[in-house]
Amino acid sequence: MTGILIYAEANGPEIHPISFELLGKARELAEKLGLEVWSVALGCRISDKASELIYHGADKVYIYDDERLRDLNVVAYKNVLVELVRETKPEIFLLGATPWGRSLAPRVAAALDTGLTADCIDLQVSENGKLIQIRPAFTGNILAHIETVSKPVMATIRYRVMKKLPRDVNRRGEIIVRRLEEIDCDGIKCLGKVSERGISLADAEIVVAGGRGLKKKEDLKMLEELANLIGGVVGASRPLVEEGWISKDHQVGFSGNVVKPKLYIACGISGSPQHLAGMRDSNIIIAINTDPSAPIFRHADYGVVADLYDFIPKLINYLKERTGKTA
Amino acid sequence: MSNQGFNIIVLIKQVPDIEKVRFDVETGRIDRSSAPGETNPFDLHALEAGLQIKERFGGLVTVISMGPRQAESSLKDALARGADRAILLTDARLAGADTIATAKALAAAIKKLGKFDLVLCGEKTVDGDTGQVGPEVAELLGVPHAAYVCEIREVTRDSVKVVSDMGDKYLYELKLPALLTVTRELNSPRLPTLKDLLRAKRLNVEIWTADHLSEIIPVNQLGFQGSKTKVVKVVIPSTEHRKGLILKGDDAVEKIGEIILREVAGG
């Protein structure tokens, strides 16, 4: 029986949560298509993670645990994955649309001479049993439904759009540990981590974001206070990052981070297409803007036509009173 | 060009001004005719990086684009900014290409040009938004690549050291030839000066068809025919599921406050 191969992304000893989400989706597709779910993990000291992949839906796990795979080396990883795909011939091969996944997947696809669909937000099975890959394009203005005419069907999938299965320690599967003779990673070498991200906006459940409606850098403190009060993190539109008011980690939008929190509060953000592309899938969107015709209001659940300098301090006071917090 | 100079290739794409594109919900067609073309903003940073390397070490910057005839204006703009040579791949047989077919055409053009040291491109485009063509070209050329490059730390005659922004930032050393896809943080693209605009007027954009590439790659591997993915449907996402409730006045504080508290408590 052939299968759906899931790349389990490991950077260091931890498996990226996107991998478990992909396994959840693969399980669902596998039932429909009559396939197995396979997973592959590459890295160093990751062997103990194989059973976690089985608990989350894999029938078979290939592990490449090697000191030489400690760093994310796109050429080495590509060579290993290409060889595995040629040997096992999966029908479908999915990777997370993380920055690393989006750098690695195209190399693998080009080497295999197969189609690759980027940054999918849904996968469906058509009536004639084809995998339909759904992805936003044109800065999130359209959703394209895509079919692949080559094998394997390859796609990268956006973080936090698929649901992982509950961890089931009674699930059984096969673990195949692979040894590598030579690793060809000629031409590229990782010299180490330069800096860690300050925050992970993609993981945030509540985002309080500021835009051009803010008059000066110091006013971000007001948004920070609101964010702290409700357990959120501060986001920003591109102009604020380009002004140097706040680091890129905080940028929401097409050229920044795509976020999907349960609550997104847009403060003084007009809602350019490039910003909307980064937050339109938030569960609840609240927008505060002085301009009633600002595009952000068309994408918000609740819009407040007000000056944020008047509204936010009042809101902070209200929330403090209601929660009894003084922070 | 001297033997020491760098042979730099910059890949650019002309994209529609996203705010002016019309999307037809019925047919799913994307009408770009009302939207003027502009160079994909990310690609201008790739061009700037190429020009800076040329200015420091000498060499040639060749800009390649694939697209309809009107993409010539983006290549003219690149010449005005300081590129030495511009090539437009334009042919009905190249149209309708997915990323792999696009990468094959671009890689074939690069191979046809001969020796190169560095290929630069933007991290992604504002229309396709795949970010796939760069790494695919690298694989087809058999050279290493670094994606999301936000800093070029060191350039020597046979290697580069770059910082790749993958959330956490990593330093990579790549042997040349290599390919880099770059972010907007890398640099600030220059604007063409009057002198550059005058110089560019005298330079031609070379027009290549599929026949120019056929000695490198069979034409049936390019364009729509060579594409491995097909768009079967286009849907315009609806924003109608939003409540769109507009609040004004002093009630708004309390109402928004309660919504926030409900969401925070919702876990």
Structural class of chain B: alpha/beta
**Most extensive chain contact?**
A-B, 89 and 81 residues
Class inferred from helices and paired strands of chain A? alpha/beta
Major sheet of chain A, described briefly? 7 strands, parallel
The name of the CATH superfamily of chain B reads HUPs
Count of helical segments of chain A? 8
CATH class of chain B: Alpha Beta
Instruction: State which percent range the strand residues of chain A make up.
Output: 25-35%
CATH architecture of chain B: 3-Layer(aba) Sandwich
Sheet with the most strands: spatial strand order of chain A: 7-11-6-1-4-5-12
In spatial order, strands of the major sheet of chain B run 11-10-9-12-8-1-6-7-13
Fraction of helical residues of chain A: 25-40%
Write up what this structure looks like.
The complex is a heterodimer of chains A (327) and B (267). Chain A is α/β, with parallel strands linked by helices and 327 residues long. Chain A has 2 domains: 3-178, 3-Layer(aba) Sandwich (Rossmann fold), CATH 3.40.50; 201-323, Rossmann fold (3-Layer(aba) Sandwich). Chain A contains 8 helices and 18 strands. In chain A, the strands form 4 sheets. Chain A has a 7-stranded parallel sheet with strand order 7-11-6-1-4-5-12. In chain A, strands 15-14-16-17-18 form a 5-stranded parallel sheet. Chain A is elongated, with a radius of gyration of 22 Å. The relative contact order of chain A is 0.11. The mean pLDDT of chain A is 94. Chain B has 7 helices and 15 strands. With 267 residues, chain B is α/β, with parallel strands linked by helices. In chain B, α2 (72-81) crosses α5 and α3 crosses α4. Chain B has a single domain, classed as 3-Layer(aba) Sandwich (Rossmann fold), CATH 3.40.50.620. Chains A and B meet through α3, α4, β7, β9 and β10 of A and α3, α4, β9, β10 and β11 of B. β10 of chain A pairs antiparallel with β14 of chain B.
